[in-house]
Every structure is written in structure tokens, then in C-alpha cells.
Amino acid sequence: MDHSTETKIYTTALFRDAWAALGGGPREVGLRGERILPAAPFGVSALSAAAFAAAGSAVAELLEAAGASPPPVTVDAELASAWMRTPTHPVGWERGTPWHAVSTDYPTADGRWVRLQANYPRLREATARVLGVPVDPDAFAAVFRAHDADEIEQAIVAGGGAAAATRSLAEWDAHPHGRTLREEPLVDVIAGDAADDTWTPLPGRPLSGIRVLDITRVLAGPMATRFLAGYGAEVLRIDPPGYAEPDGESGGDLTLGKRCAHLPLDTDEGRDRFLALLAEADVLVHGLRPGALDGLGLGEAARRAARPGLVEVTLNAYGWTGPWAGRRGFDTLVQTSAGMSTELMRRAGGARPELLPAQVLDFATGYLMAAAALRGLTRRMTEGRGSSWRLALARTARLMLAHGAPPEGPALAVPVAPDPHGRIFTSPYGPVRRLAFPLEVGGSPLFWERPGDPYGSATPRWASRAPIGRAPC
Known about the structure:
Elements: H1 3-21, E1 30-32, H2 44-65, E2 73-76, H3 77-85, E3 88-90, E4 105-107, E5 113-116, H4 121-131, H5 137-145, H6 149-158, E6 163-165, H7 169-174, H8 176-183, E7 188-194, E8 211-215, H9 220-230, E9 234-239, E10 258-262, H10 268-279, E11 283-286, H11 292-295, H12 300-306, E12 311-316, H13 331-337, H14 340-348, H15 360-383, E13 385-392, H16 393-402, E14 432-434, E15 439-441
Parallel strand pairs: 1-2, 8-9, 8-11, 9-10, 11-12, 12-13
Antiparallel strand pairs: 2-15, 3-14, 4-5, 5-6, 7-13
Helix pairs in contact: 1-2, 2-3, 2-15, 9-15, 15-16
């Protein structure tokens, strides 16, 4: 069997497991491209292609449920890998980095390492308080060297920071939370309230008329809502006043197709406005820590009362059950906890932990979230009920680990060539060239109607027109 065939079989197996976890039935997806991001023994490129395949299948299923002929779904696996790294290329300007100098791996007294994620000011400040030193990589390193990995990891997490101690793959598998993840579903779905919506998808622009309320942060959640915007949904992103993502994450990639508004949810006025927005929404996507909305007076009962039949999709880092349920985390931290960075270091004979060549846990989870939202819309259209869907980065990692090492293949050089048509797009930070999108759903091209708006640039309200099939409120 040649490499191309082996790679397609491996990727297809990942897709089928993901699609089955979403509740999807038998479906075929075309795959092309065989070059992969070198990440042995982890199937980074295959997982990204499988996640695109799941999202595309959900689009196709939605159209079929409305009576359309089954559209073909094709994924370019090489472009899927490239989209994880550099989907846009600045023209005449330089993109900043989101990585702060203190966001790195620190050796500890017991011969292990701790990965720190501190790109956000509040995380840096929380860590500095715990360590008792200024925000400085050398000052941080001195404290780390004086403590064992588990001790300092726990202190930082308890103090409001974000950190992960290194473990081997076997250690994570035996860890109480690692064991719990083996039993947790990749996608957890709960049936919601009855809905009387009469919306149906439009051929060519499947999500036209759908409203998506987005309260996500980098990276997985914004990727999910960006995908929904690309197929025609009206996406309104809500952030606290003054909020913006770290510089390298805010170059317009993650706000493509969306309007972005600031709204203080910790005030009575902000809460009332949010509930009014929710009452006219079809989908809510959020990645806030468990209990965060409850603390703002926006718990499940309030959300369901505001919008019966809502499709709600949410994620966290470490999962929804077990001792670390709701633990603060990011893609790089989950990689560290789950043993990936240690395994890459061991295989390379390196002196320090290594990260995967792309943040595939964020990336794949984001597109699985988009698929969940679409499946929720399909179920609401066919069964007349809303639904709630939960995903987690650590559970997506478990999916990849469960499939073992991928077939070896030719390495993909990143960045790949930009849009073959040579088009230049606008963004809040300057002109960009963008890679062709990796997914094709026959008859429904993906494109964004907005260039990637700056954070807080919009008013927190929906467009004037009412969603198709619903009366204005």
C-alpha cells in the first residue's frame, strides 16, 4: 500500500470517529494532498483534515435535511495543515507575536519542566503575585528552579494563572484526570427546549438568516464562529469593554466575517442587553470557564428562558468531568500535561520540551465546534428542539493519541503558496493575502462578507433584518 493511501485511511478513521461522536451517519469525504507537518508520533495534519471534513459534512447534512441533493465534500489536507500555521500573509507590514517573553518552559528542582501561558496581562500579573517577583523571565526562572514541578504548577493555577507541569504520555494516561478523559465523550450533547422556528438553509449560502452570539477567546471558539460566518451566519462577538486579543492573534484572522462589540456583562444594563441579543439568536458559542455565566446572572435557566430552542456550543481546556474539570488551560498547556511536549523532546534528543508544529488541539476543536453548531441547527430544523454541545481540548487530544502514530510522509513546507488568484484582502492591520480555504462543499462556496473588524468596533445589536422564518422581536 502506498503512502497516499495509508494517509487517507488514517485520516478517514479520525474523521469517522469525530463524525460519529457528533451523531452523524455514514458519509464519504474526498481527501487530497499527502504532505504533512512533521510531528511524529502525532497525527497533527490528519487531525486537522479530519476536523475540516467533519465541519464540511455538517454543512452538507444541513442542506440535505432541507431537501437538497447531497453535495460532495472535499478537503485539501495540505491546505488544512497550512491554515493551522499561517492562513494570511501581510502585504507591506509585519504581524506581531502573541507570545510574551514569560510564556515559555521553565526547568524545576525535580528535573521536570513547567509550561507557563501568560500572554494576557491578567495571567502574567497573577503568576507574578504567586511567585513574588516582577514580570520578568529571569526572575520567574529563578523561582521555578527552587520548586518541584507539581508544587509550583498547583500554586500558579490556584492563584489565577495558567501553567502545566510536564508528564510523559504514560504518566498522563495513568493520571487521575487522564483516566477520566478515556471515559468522557469527545462531544457531549444534551437535548434542549422545543423551538417553533421555520428557518431553512438557502442553497449556496447555507447559514443566511442564522444569528450567532459569540463570547469566545482565542483560538478554538473564534475559529468555530469564523467558519459559521463564512457560510453566511451573522456573527456578533461580545467582549468586555477595552478587551482585545494579544497582538499576533488579532490581525483580523479570527474576526473575519464578524461584527465585534464591547458589552459589560457584569452590569445590569449589560446583562439585559445580552439577554435581549440572546432572545434573537439561533446559536450561542462560548468558551468561558464553567460557572462564569452563572456568576453573572446568565446561568442555564436564564439562557433557556431568554431563547427557547437555542443551540449552545461551549468548550473548555481539560474537560467536563474528573479532578481537573474546568481547570484553566490553553492548547500549549494541554500538550504539556498530556505528555506530547516531553515525547517530542525525547524523540529529538533535545534539552527542553518541544511543542507541536501547530496548535492543532485548538484548531481541530474549533472546527468540531462548528460542526456541532451545524448539527444542532439540523436537529432543530428536523426535530424541533434546541441542544447543548460540550467539547474540550484535552478530549480532542485523546482522539489524536488514541489513533497512534500516522504513516510517515513527505514534509509540508509552511507557508505554502497564497491564494492562486493573487487576491489581496483588507484587514484591520493592513492588506493581506490569504490561503485558499481547505474545504469545498459543492455549490456552497465559503467566503466572508466582512474583512475582520477590530474588537469593540460595532454596536451590540443585530442587523436590522429579522432572521428568515422568525418574526421581529
